[in-house]
Design goal:
mainly beta; two-stranded antiparallel sheet; 12 strands; 14% strand; elongated; LRR_dom_sf
Length: 251
């Protein structure tokens, strides 16, 4: 058993998880990123103290159900796989606070995500999402949502009913019009760059905007009928690649 209760087997070209890892029952962090995994052994269920599991950059076409038995998980990295859906059993992970499902094959956000009541950070960028489920508003702990690089043609209406959101990223979508976000009291940052929008979202004082006309009034300035382009803000770095530490129907 490692002294720091951490095992990092990232970038080892693994095709299967070494079974002896499942005997480390006090393990807290398991990093399996950047391998060739497409399944996990049922013995993984023995790791009931696991809080961080990194499965990103592998070949999973479906989330192994054994992952959903690890009820102490706080952070789950599933990005850069081949997932088209998530199992209903994911609802069992009621301690999950951070979920990364970016760069998969999701055409809709699985509604089971809306049952993760403690979720604070959701990274669902670089999929093929066109809408968000209305049940997302049930996630009252959600503070950060990353939706860049999807197929959104309108600003997701459900986000207008989530007053505790602090960061909204809808960069690189197909949104042409932004509603006012000035009524969201918790908002600190909205990223809307690289959309074919006709306006910038109105925000409350002190909220940072990143996108066209972000330093100007919410609409582009016009002079003699022509739209004057405003110099773009430089977009901040995307969510960190390094792993952070953990810190239905209507509800």
């Amino acid at each position: 058993m490692p002294v720091d209760k951490t095992v990092d087997l990232s970038s080892r070209q693994l095709r299967r998880l070494p079974l002896h890892i499942c005997s480390f029952r006090e393990l807290v962090k398991l990093y399996l990123s950047d391998n060739n995994l497409n399944h996990l052994p049922p013995e993984l269920e023995q790791l009931q103290n696991l809080q961080i599991l990194a499965l990103d950059f592998n070949n999973f076409k479906a989330l192994p159900l054994v992952v959903c038995t690890l009820k102490q998980l706080c952070i789950l990295y599933l990005g850069n796989n081949k997932l088209c859906s998530l199992p209903l059993e994911l609802r069992l992970l009621q301690n999950l606070k951070t979920l990364w499902i970016e760069s998969n094959c999701l055409q809709r956000l699985p509604e089971v995500v809306c049952e993760l009541s403690l979720l604070k950070t959701l990274h669902a960028g670089s999929n093929a999402l066109r809408t968000l489920p209305t049940q997302l508003r049930c996630l009252q702990e959600l503070r950060t949502i990353w939706l860049s690089g999807n197929l959104l043609s309108e600003f997701p209406p459900v986000l207008l009913d989530m007053p505790f959101l602090e960061v909204i990223d809808v960069d690189r979508n197909s949104i042409r019009f932004f509603p006012s976000l000035a009524h969201l009291p918790g908002l600190k940052l909205v990223i809307y760059d690289h959309n074919p929008c006709r306006n910038a979202p109105k925000v409350a004082k002190g909220v940072r905007r990143v996108g066209r006309w972000s330093e100007e009034t919410p609409e582009p300035r016009k002079r003699s009928g022509a739209v004057i382009e405003i110099t773009l803000d430089e977009k901040p770095s995307p969510p960190p690649a390094s792993k952070p530490e953990p810190e239905a129907e209507p509800c």
